[in-house]
């Protein structure tokens, strides 16, 4: 089986980020993660619970339904923040490396973000993804999966200062995001595995998810 090195890439990126980012900004970003971890927001659904069905448009506007995907086999469902997030892009590319293994296991992969279909299309093209990438505008599905949180005003200011226009990418002025989360959903719609953390830098290595999938 293919193994991915996403965590290694994360660690390299984090050390570079720390070198070039003022301590005050790093502290504020850390504070936002701590506050989210202590809050009731973004805790996500747990293993054993039923995965809510949904219908969302893919990058070309075609409607995709979870139930239809589950008819083909189990589904790895991953929620990511957006194509502007370097950690998300590294994760999406790592899953692309594993598509052969995922297909061999008889499974499907779905990635969901609050971006518009247009923004999802550019994420898909930039990362050369050949799996399903869906747009959950307004975070309606992420909300059903209990993953949504609101960015604190001081973090919104940092993002805006970095030139990050979430309002345009998501066609929304709510400044809400999903916590990055990964689920394995069995064909009967039950969640067999979940990994949800308040810290967007803390994600499960995709090859570990495929190992879990194969052991079901």
Query: Shape, please?
Result: globular
What does the average pLDDT come to?
96
Assign the CATH class.
Alpha Beta
The Cα radius of gyration reads: 17 Å
Give the helix tally: 10
The percent range for helix content is 40-55%
Distance between the termini: 16 Å
Q: Can you summarize this structure?
A:
The chain is α/β, with parallel strands linked by helices and 216 residues long. It has helices spanning 6-20, 23-38, 66-72, 86-97, 99-104, 117-126, 140-144, 153-161, 166-170, 206-215, and strands at 55-57, 63-65, 75-79, 108-113, 132-135, 148-150, 176-178, 181-185, 191-196.
Please characterize this protein's 3D structure:
This protein has one domain: Glutaredoxin, CATH 3.40.30. It has ten helices and nine strands. The protein has helices at 6-20, 23-38, 66-72, 86-97, 99-104, 117-126, 140-144, 153-161, 166-170, 206-215, and strands at residues 55-57, 63-65, 75-79, 108-113, 132-135, 148-150, 176-178, 181-185, 191-196. The strands form three sheets. The protein has a five-stranded mixed beta sheet. The longest helix has 16 residues, at 23-38. The relative contact order is 0.21.
């Amino acid at each position: 089986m293919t193994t991915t090195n996403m965590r290694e890439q994360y660690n390299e990126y984090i050390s570079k980020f720390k070198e070039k980012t003022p301590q005050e900004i790093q502290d504020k970003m850390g504070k936002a993660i701590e506050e989210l971890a202590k809050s009731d927001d973004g805790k996500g659904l747990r293993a054993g619970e039923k995965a809510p069905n949904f219908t969302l448009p893919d990058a070309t506007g075609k409607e995709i339904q979870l139930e239809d995907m589950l008819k083909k086999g189990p589904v790895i469902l991953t929620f990511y923040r957006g194509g502007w997030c370097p950690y998300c892009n590294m994760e999406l590319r790592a899953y692309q490396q594993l598509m052969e293994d995922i297909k061999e296991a008889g499974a499907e992969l779905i990635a969901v973000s609050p971006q518009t279909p247009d923004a999802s299309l550019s994420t898909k093209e930039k990362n050369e993804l050949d799996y399903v990438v869906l747009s959950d505008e307004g975070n309606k599905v992420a909300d059903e999966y209990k993953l949504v949180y609101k960015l604190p005003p001081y973090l919104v200011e940092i993002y805006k200062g970095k030139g990050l226009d979430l309002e345009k990418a998501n066609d929304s002025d709510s400044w809400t995001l999903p916590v990055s989360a990964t689920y394995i959903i069995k064909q009967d719609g039950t969640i067999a595995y979940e990994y949800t953390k308040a810290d967007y830098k803390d994600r499960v290595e995709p090859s570990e998810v495929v190992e879990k999938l194969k052991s079901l």
